[in-house]
TrEMBL record:
Keywords: Glycosidase, Hydrolase, Signal. GO terms for molecular function: glucan endo-1,3-beta-D-glucosidase activity. PROSITE patterns: GLYCOSYL_HYDROL_F17. Residues 1-31 form the signal peptide. PANTHER family: GLUCAN ENDO-1,3-BETA-GLUCOSIDASE BG1-RELATED-RELATED. InterPro entries: GH (IPR017853), Glyco_hydro_17 (IPR000490), Glyco_hydro_17_plant (IPR044965). The gene is LOC100826015. This is Glucan endo-1,3-beta-D-glucosidase. The keyword Signal applies. Coiled coil: none annotated. It comes from Brachypodium distachyon (Purple false brome). It comes from the Eukaryota.
Amino acid sequence: MAKQASVASVLGAALVLIVALLAAFPAECGAHRHRAAKPHGHKKAVHSIGVCNGVLGSNLPTPSDVVQLYKSKGIASMRIYAPETGILRALAGTGIGLVMDVPNENLTAMASSPPFAAAWVKANVQPYSSSSGVSFRYIAVGNEVVDSEGQKNILPAMKNLAGALAASGIGIKVSTALRFDAITNTFPPSNGVFSDPSFMGPVAAYLASTGAPLLVNVYPYFAYVDNPRDIQLGYATFQPGTTVRDDGNGLVYTNLFDAMVDSIYAALEDAGTPGVGVVVSESGWPSAGGFAATAENARRYNQGLIGHVGGGTPKKAGPLETYVFAMFNENQKTGLETEKHFGLFNPDKSPAYSISF
C-alpha cells in the first residue's frame, strides 16, 4: 500500500529528478505504496486503468456498494490485498478485472508447503474462477517485501502457487508487487538496474518463463515531497513545462512517472529478461494531511495518470496497466496523516475531488 513506499524508495526517485532537473534547468536548479492455459473468467483486453480497494477504514461501503461504484464509474479493474469473500462474491459476473494478493504473512507457509498453496487456491480462487465468476488478472505473491528473509520466500511461494493453480486447471498468472526502490541507478532511466540482482534475477527469469508481468508500485509523490526545491511539482503531476532528455538513448521525458517506469524496463533488460512486461500496481497522490497533499494536486496527478497511461511511456508505447491507489480514504491507516487521504472517494462514496475515467 501507499504507506509502504519508504524513505529509501523516495530517495532513489528523488535522486533521479535532482540530476534530471539540474540537466534540464541549469540556471534555476544549479544554485517513486498487488501462461499456456487460458485464464478462467471473462476474457478481456488489457485494462489500462484500475483502482486499488483498501479496507483499512471503519466506515467503508459494503462490498456490493463498492463494486457498484466501480461499475458506475467505468473502472475496469480492481486490486485487493487479500482474499475478501464479500468483494469476490460481488465481483462475480461483472467483468471487472481483479489483481488479488497473497498477504505477506502467508508467504512463509506458501513457500514451504505445496499443500498450503493448494488449500489457499481451493479456498480463495476455485470458488470464484468459473466462466461466470471473477475475472482474475493476476495473483501477486506479496506486496513490497523488503526484508531479505521475506524475499527468499517469494519465488518458492510463486512456484508453489502456480503449481496449485495448474493442478486445479486454473490459468491465472502469478507475480509479485515490488516497491520502487527494488530498482536503482534510475537516472537516466536507461541506466536502471535491480538493487539486488540475486533476488530479482531469478524472479524476473521465472516471470519470463511464464509470461507474467512484473508488478511495481510507482509513486512520484514521495520523490517530490522529499526534495521540492529541486523537483518541479508540475513534472511530478503531469503538468506541461518540463522536459528531460535521457542521454543514454535520446528519449525525452515530460513527467516523472514515465521516467520511473522506463527505469524498470531498463532493469529488466539488464537482467536479461526484456520480454517481461510491467504493471504499475499502485500509484497515487494524497489530497490532505501533509506537504503538497491538496485536492488540486491529487486531482492533477490522478487525472493526468488516468489520461496518460493508455499511451504507454517513451520507451514502451501502448497501454500500460496501472492501478490508482486508492478507491477510498481510509481512516484506520497508520503512519503519516497523508496515508488516510489517498482515496479518490470518501467513505460515503462522494468524490474526494473531481475525477473521471
